[in-house]
Amino acid sequence: MNINLKTVILSLSIMTVFNEVNAQGNPDNGLIKNQVPVTNALDYINKLKPISYEFNRDKYNQANLPAGNQFGFDAQEVKNVLPGAVGTYNTWYNSGKNNPKAIETNTVDMQQLVPLLVGAIKDQHAEIQQLKQRITQLEEAQKSK
Prior knowledge:
Elements: E1 2-4, H1 6-9, H2 41-47, E2 50-53, E3 70-73, H3 75-81, E4 86-94, E5 100-108, H4 113-143
Parallel strand pairs: 1-5
Antiparallel strand pairs: 2-3, 4-5
């Protein structure tokens, strides 16, 4: 029986290990095509809202969910911004003798966020450099008065 839970959907600590070939691990062997630079990465990052949450361990005590405060993103919100970064994952647990159950959750592939974070840092760095240059120009103009 699949159970779709709002609290577990928020779960991003349940990460899957993808054994498939991905472009990040093999960029030079011809597996990828249509490669273009990411622009406006900061716009994507600004749309993401980090959250903290706790798993409902009382209701799903047999699922061995992590205790305490967790950090992540609401997978549904991420899906609105970056649909390809969200996948579905089943967490299986025993609900009695010969009675396995699954909790279906949406999870965020954090690896897909890393290139956007790097792009956002680069965008911010370029803006900081422009602002420094503008400050220098204003200071020089002020001195010459």
